[in-house]
């Protein structure tokens, strides 16, 4: 009998159970532009019970108001009723929304949110200045927050060797989880990402997340876990990247593949 836990490394929140071990974690993005949209989207998402909720604060128009952001983060935490929260400010160089904040102010905002104990994970990009990366990592770990070191390429799919190097670099930088998301131009590029994910799983001690985006890349959201990816992303309210599938459909497909690999016809 095959077990999904033989394929990928588990992502764990201390003292909290966020997966039953039968499927990879399913993360759903929260991308509201204002507080009303964030809370409305959150209500829709919570009803679908994802494993993790990702708040994309680069979409939030009030990002420059630290007090407002921290207050909303705490509200999200309270309403999420135990669902772990991932905080993400995606930069424009890696596909995020433009914001009127320097990196120093972004880091100060992160530290304020960390201090509120409202989140479990933070995404910070490997392409950041090493000084900024270290500051984010130190602040996250001081607050008990796990850092996902991420790399995104919305234009192409690098080689297997380049992608694996990103996973290894994340581990060497001290991250808790490594993430790579790339854009395929052909179906062969999807195989490149999957092969790199498998090799990264073998070579890194970290849980890793490997994603191919767009229509072709949707395949990796369905069975990337079988190649070593510990988390997949789905739509609960609105998508944050091309190729994300509705959470209900994704979970149905995951269950089918899980049964097939376990040898259970039921």
Keyphrases for this structure?
266 residues; alpha/beta; TIM Barrel; 8 helices; globular
Question: How would you describe what is shown here?
Answer:
This protein has 266 residues and is an alpha/beta fold. It has one domain (24-262): Alpha-Beta Barrel (TIM Barrel), CATH 3.20.20. Helix content is 41%, strand content 17%. The protein is built from 8 helices and 9 strands. It has a 9-stranded parallel beta sheet. Helix 6 links the parallel strand 6 and strand 7 (208-212). Helix 3 runs parallel beside helix 4 (130-142), helix 5 (160-172) runs parallel beside helix 6 and helix 6 runs parallel beside helix 7. The longest helix has 17 residues, at 187-203. It is globular, with a radius of gyration of 17 Å.
Question: Could you provide a short overview of the structure?
Answer:
The chain has 266 residues and is of the alpha/beta class. It has helices at 35-46, 66-80, 103-115, 130-142, 160-172, 187-203, 214-223, 247-262; strands at residues 25-30, 52-56, 85-88, 121-125, 146-153, 177-182, 208-212, 231-235, 245-246.
Q: State the low-pLDDT regions, or none.
A: none
What CATH architecture would you give? Alpha-Beta Barrel
- Strand/helix succession: EHEHEHEHEHEHEHEEH
Strand order of the largest sheet: 7-6-5-4-3-2-1-8-9
Rg on CA atoms, Å: 17 Å
As a percent range, the share of strand residues is 15-25%
Structural domains: how many:
1
Mean pLDDT: 91
Biggest pleated sheet: 9 strands, parallel
Q: What is the rounded distance between the termini?
A: 14 Å
> How would you classify the helix and strand content by structural class?
alpha/beta
Assembly classification: single chain
CATH topology, by name, is TIM Barrel
Number of helices: 8
The beta-strand count equals 9
From the spread of the alpha carbons, the general shape counts as: globular
Please name the fourth-level CATH homologous superfamily. Aldolase class I
The percent range for helix content is 40-55%
CATH class: Alpha Beta
């Amino acid at each position: 009998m095959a077990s999904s836990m033989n394929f990928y490394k588990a992502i764990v929140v201390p003292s909290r159970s966020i997966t039953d071990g039968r499927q990879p974690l399913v993360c759903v993005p929260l991308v509201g532009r204002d507080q009303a949209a964030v809370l409305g989207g959150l209500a829709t998402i919570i009803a679908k019970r994802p494993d993790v909720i990702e708040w994309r604060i680069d979409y939030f128009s009030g990002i420059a108001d630290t007090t407002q952001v921290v207050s909303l983060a705490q509200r999200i935490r309270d309403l999420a009723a135990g669902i772990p929260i991932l905080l993400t400010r995606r930069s424009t160089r890696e596909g995020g929304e433009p914001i009127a904040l320097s990196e120093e102010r972004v880091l100060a905002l992160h530290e304020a949110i960390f201090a509120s104990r409202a989140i479990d994970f933070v995404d910070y990009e490997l392409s950041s200045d090493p000084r900024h990366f270290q500051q984010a990592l130190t602040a996250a770990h001081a607050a008990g927050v796990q850092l996902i070191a991420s790399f995104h390429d919305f234009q192409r799919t690098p080689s297997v060797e380049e992608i694996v190097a990103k996973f290894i670099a994340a581990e060497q930088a001290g991250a808790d989880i490594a993430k790579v998301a790339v854009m395929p131009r052909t179906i062969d590029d999807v195989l490149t990402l999957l092969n790199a994910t498998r090799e990264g799983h073998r070579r890194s001690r970290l849980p890793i997340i490997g994603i191919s985006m767009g229509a072709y890349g949707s395949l990796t959201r369905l069975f990337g876990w079988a190649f070593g990816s510990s988390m997949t992303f789905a739509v609960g309210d609105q998508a944050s990247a091309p190729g994300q599938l509705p959470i209900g459909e994704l979970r149905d497909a995951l269950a089918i593949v899980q049964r097939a690999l376990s040898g259970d016809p039921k």
